[in-house]
Amino acid sequence: MDMQLPLDQINQRAWTTRDAFREFTREKMWTDAGEEAAFARIANECRGQPLLDIGIGAGRTVPLMMHMSSDYTGIDYTASLLEQSRKRFPGVDLRHMDARDMAALPSDHFALTAFSWNGIDCVDYDDRVRILREMHRVTRPGGLVLFSTHNRGGPGFDERPRQLLPRLCANPLRFGWRVLRAARLLPLATWNYRRNVRLHRDFEGYSIRTAAAHYFGIVIVYTTLPEQRRQLEALGFEVDAVYGSCEGDLIPPGQQTSDAWWLHFIARKVS
């Protein structure tokens, strides 16, 4: 693409709101069945090995990764979220670092480099390539990368604020609650959407859209199965497995489309 879109600046603003902080600090394990299946697939291979966790936010993945290995490094470029992680996990190697430039980390070192919760989608496409190149550099030959990415063929693509309108139901109390909720959320969501819609773009294999999360306050990359496979292979990876988010199903190598909200890619460094 020939223009730099300020996606990460927009998204960082959304992540530091009070509602976002409340979401990030909720006690939960897996984002979805696909993430759980992907971790189960790699756990034995990565047990006791050096692990890198990118985009840790407030620390959801820290115990998940450290269950596999205590040789763990976590990074995030949002200082306020990283501070919460440090408070929750004192003594753990957690660093303020941007995944586009991980020069402070050694090359060919980590057995697993992971970037969860679709974090790689929150920068523009050129920066996405930079991140994957850095993930390739720091991963040892034969090592694994694991990341999730929004699916352009899934139900989350091209969402609009009108989906927040209250659905009719027979229970008047429940419907009244839905009306009140819509009255609270819809103005902010509509304002965010109208502000961000100017950044929408469509390209071969991927698109940029406002996502419904954080009241339509984030702008992200949605990609296709073939494009993400192509990109990984071009950067020196071999795709080991892809899991859909909804059912945790393993997507066959030849499958070109999926109706999952997002996709979990496991790839191996081959060059």
Write the layout of secondary structure elements.
Layout: H1 7-15, H2 18-24, H3 33-46, E1 51-54, H4 61-66, E2 72-76, H5 79-88, E3 93-96, E4 110-115, H6 125-138, E5 139-151, H7 172-196, E6 201-203, E7 206-211, H8 213-216, E8 218-223, H9 225-234, E9 237-244, E10 262-269
Report on the architecture of this protein.
With 271 residues, this protein is an alpha/beta fold. It has a single domain, classed as 3-Layer(aba) Sandwich (Rossmann fold), CATH 3.40.50.150. It is built from nine helices and ten strands. The protein has helices at residues 7-15, 18-24, 33-46, 61-66, 79-88, 125-138, 172-196, 213-216, 225-234, and strands spanning 51-54, 72-76, 93-96, 110-115, 139-151, 201-203, 206-211, 218-223, 237-244, 262-269. Strands 1, 2, 3, 4, 5, 6, 7, 8, 9 and 10 form a ten-stranded mixed beta sheet that branches. The radius of gyration is 19 Å and the shape is globular. The two termini are 26 Å apart. The relative contact order is 0.17. The mean pLDDT is 92. Residues 52-143 form the Methyltransferase domain. Keywords: Methyltransferase, Transferase. InterPro entries: Methyltransf_25, Methyltransf_Superfamily, SAM-dependent_MTases_sf. GO terms for molecular function: methyltransferase activity.
Our count of helices gives 9
Estimated helix fraction: 25-40%
What would you call the shape? Answer: globular
Please give the CATH class: Alpha Beta
Spatial separation of the terminal alpha carbons: 26 Å
Total number of distinct structural domains: 1
Largest sheet: 10 strands, mixed
Q: Classify the fold: give the CATH topology.
A: Rossmann fold
Structural class: alpha/beta
Tell me, rounded to a whole number, the average pLDDT.
92
Give the beta-strand count: 10
Q: What's the CATH architecture? A: 3-Layer(aba) Sandwich
Find the CATH superfamily: Vaccinia Virus protein VP39
How much beta, percentage-wise? 15-25%
Indicate the low-confidence ranges by residue numbers.
none
